[in-house]
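pls read this stuff:
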Amino acid sequence: MLYLKKIVFGYFILIVGLLQGTANSNQLQTYIGLSFQNQIKRGYVSAFAFHNHDPRFGNSNFHVHNNCNPFVKGKEVLQALSFNAEYVVNQKIAVAVSLPYSLKTQLFADSVNLFRNGIGDVKLGFRYALFESSPQKLFTKVKHQTILSIYVKFKTGKYNQTTTSNDIDPHLQNGLGSTNWQTSLQHFINFNKWNLSGAINYQLFTKNYFQFKKGNAFEAKIAGAYRFNIYDAIIFLPALHLLYQNKKADTMETRKILKPTSYQAFLLGANAAFQYKKTIFNLSYSIPVYLSYDAVDLQCKAPEQHQNIKAEIKWLWD
């Protein structure tokens, strides 16, 4: 996998983000919008939980539960409905906010084992255009733009909801209970009706009250899209993208949990964006063409498939 990482870094990283291929090639936009994200992890039953406790008295007085069954199918459905907004302060700076409502479901066979819903972790962001070119600065009909983004997620969602046995499953909470960071570097290329773009993204997670920590994650995307003008007011932008993910293991204190959470994956996906005047709708879908989890315990099997669907609508402001 080290060789594959070098390939990914060797590319001039290109990505098509949601709705980025509109007629306006400036990726800093003032808008409000709604998005719905649906991720499904399929495999066999594999669940982790710990007994509710007070870490001030040490973690030696709590126990964990690893509910694993290599013969029964299991599934986790992670959904989020979010209100999103971005405001362009000037030509180079924009601020963003995302307010999510989270729905998480855990199924053993066809039966619901756990379901949680509620306000998730609020995300605030700062975006800065590091570089921007016009056709006059480079060759004709080509525009480049590089954007650095920094986001912080606040612990606004519940992270300590217990079962009837007074246990806490940290993966089925609406929030993580910690302040977490995300940074990304994006580059966009527009020429004629083609849009090429890309990004590298890193997520840094911290420990919560119970000393649970989600594993840090690295992502890189490359993609390309072609713009179709339908009449004067409608734009259709289909796109294909390739995504590389590398996620580290979740930990309790500093020890890896037994549930498989560390993996590497290559995902292939497609986007379809429609713009009518100041309204944009985008739909994206991706599945892994390669998925490899690090083994932790023979009884706790890793998910065999991921499925990601996202829909978003934006209303642009001048």
